[in-house]
Amino acid sequence: MPQGVLSNPPLTSIAPLGRPIGLAARAGGGLAGVIARANLPGEVVCAVAEVKSGMRLEAHGGTTGLPPASVGKALTALYALETLGAGHRFETALWAKGDVSGGVLKGDLILRGGGDPTLDTDDLAQLAAGLKAAGIREVRGRFVVDASILPEVFSIDRGQPDHLGYSPSVSGIALNYNRVHFEWKQAGAQYRVTMDARTEKYRPEVDMAKMKVVARDLPVYTYANKGGVDHWTVARGALGKGGARWLPVRKPEAYVADVFVTLARSHGIVLSKTGFGSVPAGARKLVGHQSPPLAEILNGMLKYSNNLTAEMVGMMASATRERRPKDLGDSAGMMSQWAAARFGMVGTRMVDHSGLGDASRMTPDDLVSALVQVGRAGHLRSLMKTFPLRDAKGRINKNHPIKVDAKTGTLNFVSGLGGFMTSGDGTELAFAIFMADTKTRKGIPRSERERPAGAKTWNRKAKKMQQALIERWGAVYGS
To answer: Pick from 20, 84, 275, 479: most CB atoms within 10 A?
Structure first.
């Protein structure tokens, strides 16, 4: 070995020098290059920041508001958590007004909704069993459903086709996410149809929703309110041999009353007269049902993106924080004002709590600001769903070094993603991505909004761009 080779340390590192972030950020055309290569029609806006320091790292159209779709549910979750608390439970209860003698209630029985979005037929069955345990076998007065804690909303988004289950009615009481199960089976030249409120344990048929098979090809469904009953027709040409789907309920109180009367009858309890109203003064509570804690409800909302849950939880937060809202837009306005005061989200204007209405606007800067503030101490990330990253062949890559917990949002020609990502070296970032081709979306006829041409392809390209942006941020800011 030649002398002197190891006599002094090298003047420079033998490893390549790390490139400045500015240079890395400009590689490949920078952020604008990623967006341009995706070639997605419409607008794309995004922003990213480091959670620990709050430093804004980069943005593209950061102050431009676009429809957030279901990403808006992340804001609703924060609104409800701060207002109601993670452990809050909603109660649905039976109240009595009058004396009980010999198993007969000589007065009214009131089923009072408490804004629980998770109430199902099994829960109503438990309430009926509790009524029996309380010794009541007959109600001589009326059976009343009280949903007055919240205003009644015909449809979350009136622009959606009537038959879509993700835009049901909203009120202070809900059952099975305000959906009724429609099933059909061909029997010779005819069809046997059922409309029921099924769960795994029960399948009570309902009278408040009717279905008629009509000899036509289109439209597939029609809806009409006749005498307080949901009247549906379905095109014979669309049915095939058999099938089933969930349809929205437009009269939640009538739905709950219909099902509860059936369940009470199964316990030998006679309810002869039904109506709608409120719990009168002097009534006493007989039995109640508690929902799961709010944190669990929100976890399910963010995982399955249930619109009814978002609307009921959001309106209950508004009613608790300020006053009973006049309607859905009023409540969403309260939430938007709260977000501006709490997180500085001055560019956000929501028209609902679920993001289903495409008139809502949220800026990526606004959402990232909120995520950074709650990311340091809150537990929103733990409630969010893991967003899977994929390999070059489109397969889920469980070993991807970047981990993402976020809320997705999808409407026709609208896609959003917002939440938290952890890079390979452990750096935690908050990000928001909104994409929308509002011109194309506006041109879709109402009758075609369930599956419009081109929407699936557009959404697939949007998802690919979202991953490309996440991988860029992990490479540039996570090392």
So the answer is: 84
Mark 437-446 as b/e (b = at least 16 C-beta within 10 Å). Answer: beebbeebee
Q: Which two tokens stand for residue 324?
A: 């009973």
Distance in angstroms (rounded) separating the CA atoms of residues 95 and 93: 6
Q: Indicate the DSSP class of residue 269.
A: -
Q: How far apart are CA 66 and CA 366, in angstroms?
A: 12
- Does the bond joining 219 to the residue before it have cis omega, within 30 degrees of 0? yes
Is the four-CA dihedral 411, 417, 419, 422 of positive or negative sign?
A: positive
153 burial type by CB count under 10 A (0-12 exposed, 13-18 middle, 19+ buried): buried
Give this prediction's pTM: 0.92
**Separation between Cα atoms, residue 48 and residue 432, nearest integer Å:** 7
Cα distance between residue 364 and residue 77, in whole Å: 17
pLDDT score at 9: 33
CA–CA distance, 47 with 65 (Å, rounded to integer): 12
Helix (H) or strand (E) holding 75: helix 72-84
- Distance in angstroms (rounded) separating the CA atoms of residues 95 and 98: 10
422 beta partners:
403, 428
Q: Give 90-291's CATH code, choosing from 3.10.129.10, 3.30.230.10, 3.50.80.20, 1.10.287.3510.
A: 3.50.80.20
pLDDT tens digits along 88-108 = 999 999 999 999 999 999 999
